[in-house]
Design goal:
Layout (H helix, E strand, L loop, with lengths): L2 H21 L4 H8 L3 H29 L5 H7 L1 H7 L3 H11 L2 H20 L5 H8 L8 H14 L11
Length: about 170
């Protein structure tokens, strides 16, 4: 994932956090002073979360495309039912309003993403906790050298000795 993209997402996360703080009467400067970090440090610490969010979105987008998930009119109207009730309007009227304002694709994308998440959750197969823990001990090329060495030692100890690295593609 390009570092510029990760940095941009970290910036978005920081701005959302600042917006939330401002609603509580805390300014950017006040927060940074209380926190004891500068903005650059905050952004750097947000980068792992930003990268995870981008990867998660990429997976969801891939599932939407692979499964051909495309919400229809009925799903759009159903999603707007509660808002329509609050506004004392018809869901179809709100769909037309979103089309006119050019925001219907946002709703379609949100509904498609939710459908993809539901599909992933429905098709997930639970595994035993021991298998999940063993997976963490497998060495992969993406892990750093020290992390890989620790994983190999842990796996060798559990397997009853015999050094070496475990790796599965």
């Amino acid at each position: 994932m390009p570092q510029a993209l990760i940095r941009a997402r970290a910036g978005e996360m920081w701005e959302r956090m600042l917006h939330s703080l401002q609603h509580r009467g805390i300014s950017r400067e006040t927060y940074l002073q209380i926190d004891g970090r500068d903005e650059e440090q905050v952004l750097s610490e947000l980068e792992p979360d930003a990268q995870r969010a981008l990867r998660r979105e990429a997976v969801i987008t891939a599932v939407v495309e692979a499964e051909g998930i495309e919400p229809g009119e009925q799903e759009l109207e159903q999603a707007l039912t509660s808002v329509a009730h609050e506004r004392e309007a018809e869901p179809a009227e709100l769909v037309r309003e979103l089309r006119r304002s050019g925001r219907i694709e946002e709703l379609r994308d949100d509904l498609a993403a939710q459908a993809a998440i539901d599909l992933i959750a429905e098709s997930a197969e639970p595994i035993e906790p021991e298998l999940a823990q063993a997976r963490e001990q497998l060495w992969t090329p993406e892990k750093g050298a020290s992390e890989a060495a620790e994983a190999a030692e842990g796996a060798a100890e559990q397997a009853g000795g015999g050094g070496g690295r475990l790796w599965t593609p």
